Amino acid sequence: MKAIMAALFRVGTFALTVGAGTVVGLLAIPVTTRVVGADAWAVQVLVQTLATLFGVIVAFGWGTIGPGLVASLGRKDRPQLFLDSLITRAYLFLLTAPAMMIVLAVLRPREVLFVCVASAAYLMPFVGASWYFVGEGRPMRLFLFDALPQLLGTVLGVGILVMTHDLTSLVATQLVFNLCAVVISAMVIFRGGAGHLVAIFSLRNSVRQLAQQRHGVITAATGSFYVNLPMLVVNMLIPAQLASYAITDRLFRFAVTAFSPVLQFVQGWIPDGGPEAVGHRIRRASQLAPMMGLLGGALLAAAGPWAAQLLVPGQNNFGFNLSTPVGVSFAAVAVSQVIGLACLVPIGKARELASSTIVGALFGVPLILLGAVNFGVTGVVWGMALSEVAVAAFQIRVLRRHLRSTG
């Protein structure tokens, strides 16, 4: 009973971070659309979507396999891992942010200042420490030092937006607070390694670290590519439906975010029991993942149109034709996150994890393009859903083979 209560407390504390972020994000959307309109909000969503793509380069796999690396190290060795990572990711940020600004300036030439400031704001969290706090199993640190400053930036930014009617002021405020989150988190982590940390600013050392992260970044890059491709396809091929897809994208991301406390708990729970318990805990996690995914997907499919009305009141063209494939996508992602990130990484299957995302991209890219041309935004969302199902199926097959071979 004590172990169950401890597990529930940890999940609940992780959920505090997710819940607070979700509530703030949900409240910010209707305020933003009322002040500057749905079209301007859709441009903000476009920048956020591209940030997740370019953010893969900045995070370079630490967000994917980093929690497992932290969990496997002793407490004294963890701060040095983060310091090495921080230096390398800072270099990547300085290279990636200008590239993202140029791309968005080409896509949205009328909003150059906004997209440039927003690019820096939404890339900054990828330099942060969220993955480190997940790996060490300290959800309260995750909330206080990483999430809370970012949430305060959004709340204050929305207030400034209401007063100025200037969307750029919102993202500028978020940029300042997102930077504060990086600095505060780093200071807290470095305190635990005081006197033992060695800052190596050599580019050669950073390149060596990047090579060690190759499977993690392949997983993150290909996964992010086919997840975010739909927004780019809609913007280029069917721009009149961008606002409708923006609602779809937000609902899907909120649902995945709501599931993240479960994933964060499982990522730390599987290795936490020691090597002798890993196999048993992986079996339990893999049995529960499909049930949780199906339940969440069904709820999202059924309640999607109602939730869309809360996000963007009025005529928004979001019905069951869109909520159904969104539900399928979520069910598949819930399964693949638990199986892939929490189960395959601890058993040394990072290469197979990367391969699964490549399979998803090979399925997803043509399906999304064909869907956009022939069926509009509905076809795009179904293409995304089928690609996520392909990823989950591949990972389940890999895990089953491993479990059969180990008895």
**DSSP helix count?**
14
Taking pLDDT < 50 over at least 5 consecutive residues as the criterion, the unreliable ranges are none
Distance from N terminus to C terminus (CA atoms, Å) equals: 29 Å
Number of domains: 2
Structural class estimated from helices and strands? mainly alpha
| Number of β-strand runs | 0
Strand content: under 5%
> What is the string of SSEs from the N terminus onward?
HHHHHHHHHHHHHH
- If you compute it from the alpha carbons, what radius of gyration comes out, rounded to the nearest whole angstrom? 21 Å
| Average pLDDT reading | 87
Helix content: over 70%
What's the main sheet like?
none
Shape, per Cα inertia axes: globular
Q: What are its keywords?
A:
single chain; 407 residues; mainly alpha; 2 domains; 86% helix; globular
Give your account of this protein's structure.
Helices cover 86% and strands 0% of the residues. The radius of gyration is 21 Å and the shape is globular. With 407 residues, the chain is mainly alpha-helical. It has 14 helices and no strands.
